[in-house]
Amino acid sequence: MQDFKLGKKRHHSYMLTASRHGILLEMLSSYVSLASTLNLSQTVEILGSTRQTVRRHIRLLEEIKGEPLFVLHNRQYQLTVAGQASLQEAQNILRRSEAWVNGGVAHLNGLEQIRHEGDDGATFYSQQHHLNKIWETGTPLLQKGFACWAQAHGQIENPEMKWVRPYMLIYRKMGGSWQCVEIGEKSAYAKWFGWAWVKSSVGHVVSETPGGAESAVHVLDAYEEIYKRGGARFDHQYRTAPRASGGVLMPAKLKRLLVSCTFPNGDAAIGSVVEFTSNIDLSGINDAEMQDIPAEVEAELNSDGL
What's the pTM value of the predicted model, to 2 decimals? Predict the structure, then answer.
């Protein structure tokens, strides 16, 4: 392990320098996988590694962090408080590294661009826009939704939020992910997937909801950004997704508003308001790479909009 140098910093924290950053990613992969399975044999099988290597990775990370990430109890691995607290950031680092290597994420003038094409043919393109674009290119639904949120100071149960709630999806912070706790009956999500299908999404995390698996990495990153800095975020997106369980992939163009919210008990929440539209601006994506939503489908999806 000559590639590493462990140096003590102030406040008893540690700094890692490495000549090969790939080794750090391997260490984080061991940590994230073991945290998921809590079983060394399963982790070794998933990673195609060895027990000795995984143990060494965990030991080195614990030396770097200056505290244990796991404890063994009755031959069963368990995350420590420090292990739980560090897990989400480790997952984020791995997700971002994979996206960067695959050329799927870039930034233009500080605004995020995403291009993801899944093995199953699902497509997800996204372009973040400045918030002032809501008033220039946003729909009346998004504009009024933003105003409701601002007037409510982000408080979910504030009466000022009453108008926008039927159009909104609400997520609650749950460990390293976000749990769907409310789906508005007039929301774009309910209209696209159908109420009978989406109502079972309540109580599930993003990756377990209809259409969530193929874009969960990028959705979670956006939620985490809003959670950490507060405020709101405005995106134009193109994606393909089925409209029914097991259905064929269909194109959708949309504009999405994410807002940072708070439950009455102080828990963090994310509100999402989406409207389908053919008028989107995605830098670096040619029109030929996107299909239009049929006019009659767009009219159906936006039938309750403003």
Answer: 0.73
